[in-house]
Design goal:
This protein is of the alpha+beta class and about 240 residues long. The protein has five helices and 14 strands.
């Protein structure tokens, strides 16, 4: 769901074709093409919390593969994660981080920190150095850390930001975040900023669209999840 380096794998596929019942002929064929995919994910800090948002479109090249893609996932009640890039890789890492953080919580009888979770995922990504074609935003809030937003790249990069965007539409979303984000945003202001950021990408990025998922993670409160369906007419009228 994100534009990522398009490197050909170091192997060829072998196709076996029967010329007759007693003989087979092997021929080399080229490696399967790697199709770029697109998405828009954003996250920003607010007063005592974090807002995260994504679009709902999954693409394969110029083909819209799914109009109802879930790109916003709960890791723990206080910790959420967005996905961009290869769907299989991203979902595997989501499930892996869910399991590892739950094991930590059970063993230590206390919740794992946002920073600890980010560094755990960073180690997984860095050890494989680009094997996972993904980009992630990790966000949440704890009593000791406060609101945290981390941007993780497929090669293991880790950045601690006040706001961030990942995906093919991120260049458009960042324009809204740069101009409208400020410290100590209220819940309503944060939801509006992130919604506008994803919407701006949907308007301009053909690989983003079909709706917006949002979550508000606040200290001492249950996460609040929202979903907005966006029609073509809504985009034209900027509703």
């Amino acid at each position: 769901m994100n534009h990522l380096p398009n490197e050909q794998p170091n192997f060829n596929f072998i196709e076996i074709t029967p010329d007759n019942v007693d003989d087979f002929k092997a021929k080399n064929i080229g490696a399967l093409p790697i199709l770029k995919t697109g998405t828009t994910t954003v996250a920003c800090k607010i007063k005592d919390g974090v807002i995260m948002a994504t679009d709902n479109r999954a693409t394969m090249g110029y083909f819209v593969a799914n109009k109802n893609a879930k790109k916003l996932h709960k890791i723990q009640d206080y910790l959420y994660m967005t996905i961009a890039g290869g769907v299989a890789d991203a979902i595997y890492l989501i499930e892996l981080l869910k399991a590892e953080t739950e094991i930590y919580n059970l063993k230590n009888d206390k919740p794992i920190g946002i920073g600890q979770s980010a560094r755990l995922l960073q180690n997984i990504l860095y050890n494989k150095k680009g094997f996972y074609q993904v980009g992630h935003l990790l966000g949440g809030v704890t009593d000791s850390e406060g609101p945290k937003v981390y941007n993780l790249g497929g090669y293991g990069s880790l950045m601690d930001n006040d706001y961030a965007s990942v995906g093919s539409g991120s260049v458009f979303a960042l324009g809204i975040l740069e101009t409208e984000w400020k410290e100590d945003l209220t819940l309503e202001e944060g939801l509006k900023v992130c919604t506008r950021a994803v919407r701006s990408a949907i308007i301009r990025d053909m690989a983003s669209g079909n709706g917006i998922d949002l979550v508000a993670i606040q200290k001492g409160k249950e996460p609040v999840e929202k979903r907005y369906e966006i029609s073509d007419q809504d985009l034209i009228e900027l509703k």
